[in-house]
Design brief:
The protein has a single domain (about 5-250), classed as Aldolase class I (TIM Barrel). Helix content is about 45%, strand content about 15%. It has helices at about 15-30, 45-55, 80-85, 95-100, 105-120, 130-135, 140-155, 180-195, 200-205, 215-220, 240-250; strands at about 5-10, 35-40, 60-65, 90-95, 120-125, 165, 205-210, 230. Helix 1 (about 15-30) runs parallel beside helix 11. The chain is an alpha/beta fold. It binds phosphoenolpyruvate.
C-alpha cells in the first residue's frame, strides 16, 4: 500500500520570523503522525532555516525549482548540488507558475527532473491542464505530453524515485478544487500511462493532487484510490491548516 505524502509549497512567501512560527507549529502538530509523510518546499534563502529547524524531525524539506545545469555561468540560478548541501529531499519541477510565467517548456522541465534525480533529490513533477484545455477536452492529451517528456528523457524507472503532482491550473490558488472524481480520473490516467511501460513502477508511484486543497476537502480527495496525498499552496502557510491536511493523510 502506498503511503500518503503531503507537501507544502510556500511559493515566494515568508520571512525568518514568520517561517519560525509556522515551522514550529507544524513540528508540534505532526509530532505523533505515523502513517503519512509531510514536507515543505521553501524559498531558496530559507533552506538553511528549514534545515536547522527540521533536521532530526519527520518533516522533509525541499526547493520549489532548480537549474537544469550542474554548475557554471548561470547568474541567479541554483543547482541541484546546492540543494543537496542544504539537506533537501525534494525539488518541485514544472510547477504551472514556472511553466506559464517563466516559459519553462516540457523539455526544460524534463532536464530539471533529470538533474534533480541524478543529484539524489526526489523530483516532484507537476503536470496539469489550463481551464481552456479542460474545456476543449484535451486534459489527458496535455498531461500525457508533460509526462512523456520526462519518460522519454529519464526513462520509466526514474519515476520509482520521484513523485508526480497533478495540479489543474484552474484550481491553483483559485479556491476551485477539482472534485474527487475529476482528480481521480486524471490520477488513474497517469498511473495507467506509466503502467503501460512498467506495472511495478506504476503501482508504487506517488501521485499527489494539488489545487486549493484545504482541511475541509482533503479527507475526501485523499480517500480516492489513486490520490496519494497533496501538494498544498495557500493552506501550507497556516500551521493549523497544513497540520490538518497532513492528518487527513493518515485517515
Ligand atoms: C500550488 O501552488 O501548488 C497549489 C496547489 O496552490 P493552492 O493550494 O494555493 O491552490
Amino acid at each position: 500500500m502506498r503511503r500518503k505524502l503531503v507537501v507544502g509549497n510556500w511559493k515566494m512567501v515568508g520571512t525568518l520570523a514568520r517561517n519560525k512560527v509556522l515551522l514550529e507549529g507544524v513540528l508540534a502538530g505532526v509530532r505523533d503522525l505515523r502513517n503519512a509523510d509531510c514536507a515543505v518546499c521553501v524559498p531558496f534563502p530559507y533552506l538553511a532555516q528549514a534545515q536547522s529547524l527540521l533536521q532530526g524531525s519527520s518533516i522533509g524539506w525541499g526547493a520549489q525549482n532548480l537549474s537544469q545545469h550542474a554548475e557554471g555561468a548561470y547568474t541567479g540560478e541554483v543547482c541541484a548540488g546546492m540543494l543537496v548541501d542544504f539537506g533537501c529531499k525534494y525539488a518541485i519541477v514544472g510547477h504551472s507558475e514556472r511553466r506559464n510565467l517563466y516559459q519553462e517548456s516540457d523539455e526544460v522541465v524534463a532536464a530539471k527532473f533529470d538533474t534533480a534525480l541524478k543529484a539524489g533529490l526526489q523530483p516532484i513533477l507537476c503536470v496539469g491542464e489550463t481551464l481552456a484545455e479542460r474545456e476543449a477536452g484535451v486534459t489527458d492529451e496535455v498531461v500525457a505530453r508533460q509526462l512523456d517528456a520526462v519518460l522519454n528523457r529519464a526513462g520509466v524507472k526514474a519515476l520509482a524515485k520521484a513523485v508526480v503532482a497533478y495540479e489543474p491550473v484552474w484550481a491553483i490558488g483559485t479556491g476551485k478544487t477539482a472534485s474527487p472524481d475529476q482528480a481521480q480520473a486524471v490520477h488513474a490516467f497517469i498511473r495507467q500511462r506509466v503502467a503501460k511501460l512498467d506495472g511495478q513502477v506504476a503501482q508504487g508511484l506517488c501521485i499527489l493532487y494539488g489545487g486549493s486543497v484545504k482541511a475541509a476537502n482533503a479527507v475526501e480527495l485523499f480517500s480516492m484510490p489513486d490520490i496519494d496525498g497533496g501538494l498544498i499552496g495557500g493552506a501550507s502557510l497556516i500551521a493549523e491548516d497544513f497540520v490538518a491536511i497532513c492528518r487527513a493523510g493518515q485517515k
